[in-house]
Each structure stands twice: as C-alpha cells, then as structure tokens.
Sequence to fold (369 residues):
Amino acid sequence: MISRSPEAAKPVVAILTMSDPYRMFRGNRHNFQDIIRTGRDMGFEVYVVTVKDLDLDSPVLRGFIPAGDQTWEQKLFPFPRVIYNRIPAREDEAKPKVTRKIKACLRHPRLELYNPYFFNKRELFDWLNQSRQTRQWAPATKKLKGFSSLCDMIKSHPYLYLKPEEGKAGHGIMRLKHQSSKALPYRLQIQNNRGSTTYKAATLERLWQRVYKETTGEPYLIQQGIELAALHGRPFDLRLLVQKAEHGSFSVTGIGARMAGADSITTHVPRGGSIEDPEKLLTAVFGPERSQDILGRVRNAAVQIAKQIEKGSEYQLGEMSMDLGIDTSGSLWFFEANARPMKFDEPNIRKRSLERIFKYCHYLIGHRS
Ligand SMILES: Nc1ncnc2c1ncn2[C@@H]1O[C@H](COP(=O)(O)OP(=O)(O)O)[C@@H](O)[C@H]1O
Ligand SMILES: [Mg+2]
Fold:
C-alpha cells in the first residue's frame, strides 16, 4: 500500500539513486539512513528516489524511507526542491536514460541538482593546469598512449604512477621506477588485493608487455610519482572533505589521514591501509610548527582546487572528497577528487558532513526561489 506523506510543508530533498530489481534501490543504505535522519532533525523532508521513479512532470513521487533498522518502506512524497545525487556507479550514470534524466533535472526551473556527474581523473588535472594558482599542486600527468609515451615520461620523471582514468579504491594502479644504479633498473609494481607484485627488468621494453596487458580496454594516466612523507617506513596521504554550506561557498569539512599498508602502493584502508590523525602524523615527521603550516596550506589549497574543479566542470558542485599528498620536503600534491564522497570514518567529520549537506540545501532553496 502506498500512502501519502502528511509533511508537505517542509523543504523537500530527494536522494537520487538507481533502482535495483532485487533490493529496490542501489547505494549505501547506511549512508542514506544517516542522511535522512540528519535532514529530518534539521527540519527537512527527505527520501530516496530512483531515476526511474523521478517523474519530472508529477507533483508527487514514489520514494523510500527507512522503516526500522533493516527495512525500507515505499510511499508517495511531494516533488523535491533539491536533488542530492548519489548514483553509485559510473556505468549507471553513463546509461542514456540516466544521462537524459540528469540533463532534464539541470534544466528544470524548480529543481536544484548539484554534482551531476562523476569526475574523470585526466580532466581534473587538465582543469587544475588551467589556473596558475592550482597548477603548482598537480603532478605532471599525461595520457598513456603506447610505449613511446611511457618512454618519454620516464626520462623526465624516473618515478611514475599509472592509474585508470576512471578508477577508484586503488583498482588497477601501478608504479614504475627507473634506478640506473641497479642491475635491473626498471621496476614495476602492480597493486592487487592488499599487497603488490613486483617485476624487475633490464629494459622498459621488457616491462611494457606487462603494463600493456594490465591496461588494455581502459584509458590510463601516467603521472609523476611523489615521494610521500612516511612514518616508520609507511607513506601516508590526506583525505579531505570539501563542501559548500550555509553561504554557498566551499570550505574544508575535515581532514583525515590514511597510511599505506606494509606492501601496498596506495593508502586505501581495504588494501591494508590504516586511519590516522593527520596532525599527529605530520607533527611526528615535520615537527609541531611545520605541521601547522602544512595543515594551513592544505586547507587553503583544497578550497582553491575545489573552486577550480567547479569552474572546469562547468556545473554546480556542492561537495567533493580529495586525496592530497605531502612529499618528504613538505610540499603539497593533488592526487584526485571524488564527486560522490564515501562516508568518512572519523565521527566528527562524519557528523559535520551530514549537517553541511542540509545547510547547503537550505542555501540553495533560499537563494533560488
Ligand atoms: N602520483 C602519485 N605519487 C605518489 N602516490 C600516488 C600518486 N598517485 C596516487 N598515489 C597513491 O595512490 C593512492 C590512490 O590514488 P588515487 O589517484 O586516489 O586513485 P583511486 O581513485 O584508486 O583512489 C593515493 O591516495 C596515493 O596514496
Ligand atoms: Mg583515491
């Protein structure tokens, strides 16, 4: 039975996701539950809507809300003012039906949809390189176009990362080093589940077959490798959440740190990485004064970068997570930004992040009515 919700007077926000034949809708249900609970506490009516159910000509929509801890109920809800886009996968987003619906939302006069699309890694670096200010934080990055492009790049940067343009969670990442003093000077490391496999060779040609096999079918980037600051031999980097809030401008919601697992070439927690306190790590490596200076520069850079990404994307963005590295000399580097941030495990960042979603919704509604 579908019953009409009585709370029509509140500002209405819908979380957009994909329908699913087996489990009604896709996406992280715990995250959706937290978002809905926070929104309600802040005076909003919030529900989950699927692309399929989002009928832009209807005054009411079929949506989902939690009914108890594990179950969800389907009801009719008023048409939303803001759509919070949480379509979980690139493959879904790329479907023509989904693309058409997102475009229609962006054109709709009474609807605010921000963060319309996932980012592509190569475009992110192109955008950063378009501004003199943000260029300084972008490692040299090129598209992998066959053996000669790799050969050229390793001449100027003997330490390289190879990453899929649309990768996530460390999938498909490789690392290539050229150390001329060694008997087998070329070393390739390929990330697998938790560790990595190393191949050594006398020439780059010999490793190329391996790289080629690993990359076929997917566009890849070659990127200058950064010697990350490390504690007890384990490199770490920073995960930031940058969000717009009540004033409609970007600021840093929180900064976390992730330290690489013993045999991993990335810092992802599912790959053996660990969650750390950024201030503690930076202080241990750089001392208290420089660590404060670095954190200040990180905050400033993150906001500049977020603005530049929004400008480059030519869409309204409301939030992004960002991976930033600090090298052994204390300089900052941008690795990537994600348009659908995952839940932060740090409780204070998590709480603020949820509240800021609705502060921004409030801003959007107030300024666009
Ligand atoms: N150019 C680089 N130099 C050094 N480390 C890097 C570089 N690029 C990526 N990494 C490491 O690998 C991790 C994952 O890279 P990232 O670009 O964020 O890919 P993913 O989308 O898989 O998370 C980063 O957080 C960082 O620890
Ligand atoms: Mg990342």
Summary: The pocket of adenosine-5'-diphosphate (ligand 1) is lined by residues 139, 161, 163, 167-171, 173, 223-226, 228, 237, 266-267, 323, 325, 335-336 (CB under 6 Å). The chain has a mean pLDDT of 94. DSSP finds ten helices and 20 strands in the chain. Residues 141-224 form one domain.
